[in-house]
Amino acid sequence: MSDKPKQDIHEYLAELDDIPGTRIYTAARARKGYWINQFAMSLMKPENRDRFKADQRAYLDEWNISEEAKQALLVRDYNKLLDLGGNVYFLSKLFSADGLPFAEAVSTMTDMTWPEYRQMMMDGGRSAEGNRSIRANLAALKDTN
Amino acid sequence: MARITAGVGSSHVPLLGVAVDQGKTRDDYFGPIFAGYDWTRQWETEAKPDVVILVYNDHASAFDANIIPTFAIGCGERYKSADEGWGPRPVPDVEGHADMAWHIAQSLILDDFDMTIINEMDVDHGLTVPLSMMFGQPEKWPVKVVPVAVNVVTYPVPSGNRCWALGEAIARAVESFPEDLNVQIWGTGGMSHQLQGPRAGLLNREWDNKFLDLLSSDTDAARYIPHIEYLRETGSEGIEMVMWLIMRGALGEKVKTLHRHYHIPCSNTAIGHIVLEPAI
């Protein structure tokens, strides 16, 4: 084993929140979104998918989920759901229930339409340039002003 | 004695499974990807491994939000393809190697790796897509599989250093298994991709290729790449590449690179794979 210095948990977590347009699925988010994710997980069973599709609101009301999250689930506001502790691998059960291809569902979280997003991927994807750090972006902005 | 004869790093994008299952592997979109795997599929028919230790992550299929094992090993006799919301992939059941898996599990625990043991589970695209990429569409998979599931979803995920050390311990465990078996270890996932938020769609050809260079070399520098570097440079789901380090750690200090391939894009993801052999 190496003798590398121990990672400080507070610094570690602070860095995870310094990435633009990204919600890293930390323990805090996992706690907050627990029932959103467990609800999504339930859609893996065909009989649950059928019940959900028949009456989405009634199915959601069976779960210990906040009204805010229920609304976000009903309108498929995935960025909001990330903020509320949803995780994309769980939320993808809802993509599947909707019959939406994964990449198309992902594109709804960006400022692009699905055809625009698909074209961006064909052209090599989104660059890391300017997308690495919120702090660095703010510092750069300050320098130019 | 059992021995690790080769290591493979490979993406496990679910859309590749769809391409195989729907016969689209040679169309304009998927053609360049599958052409990159032609060499590897041919090589596997000659390498004829008995067992593959398949390092992957579960994508909310076998594990829900309730129980989150950092490192888990499948010790069952067989595993079915998971229903990920579309119905299960039409692939053969995956046959385990329970004797070897239990041997590895016990050895790892004595070697200070406190593994979670799984007796029954379904396996999702993370495990079945690499099998399809390496073996095509056989009626029965030509290998037994020891699944090693890694948490790369809920933070903190294991460090690169810990993953590399786990690979080293897996190699020691395999070497002490008395049966004469040809064993490969595969690390799967990646390469750069981000599936969430306004930054979704991030890809990083330059960084991914630097990572492939590091794995091909005789240095262990890759084990010290911090999580935040994967996240900033390769997107939130690029972190899956720590699983490749388990494979690389198991191959020892020096390796020979047999094949390497990289292509952008597949769905939201940069596709890469590498075939390595331990060298003296």
Automatic annotation (TrEMBL), chain A:
Its EC number is 1.13.11.8. Transmembrane segments: none annotated. Keywords: Dioxygenase, Oxidoreductase. One of its GO terms (molecular function) is protocatechuate 4,5-dioxygenase activity. Pfam families: LigA. InterPro entries: LigA_sf, PCA_LigA, Xdiol_dOase_LigA. Residues 36-121 form the Extradiol ring-cleavage dioxygenase LigAB LigA subunit domain. The keyword Oxidoreductase applies. This is Protocatechuate 4,5-dioxygenase alpha chain.
Automatic annotation (TrEMBL), chain B:
Its EC number is 1.13.11.8. Residues 9-271 form the Extradiol ring-cleavage dioxygenase class III enzyme subunit B domain. It is an enzyme of class 1 (oxidoreductase). SUPFAM superfamilies: LigB-like. This is Protocatechuate 4,5-dioxygenase beta chain. Signal peptide: none annotated. Pfam families: LigB. It comes from Novosphingobium hassiacum. GO terms for molecular function: ferrous iron binding; protocatechuate 4,5-dioxygenase activity. Keywords: Dioxygenase, Oxidoreductase.
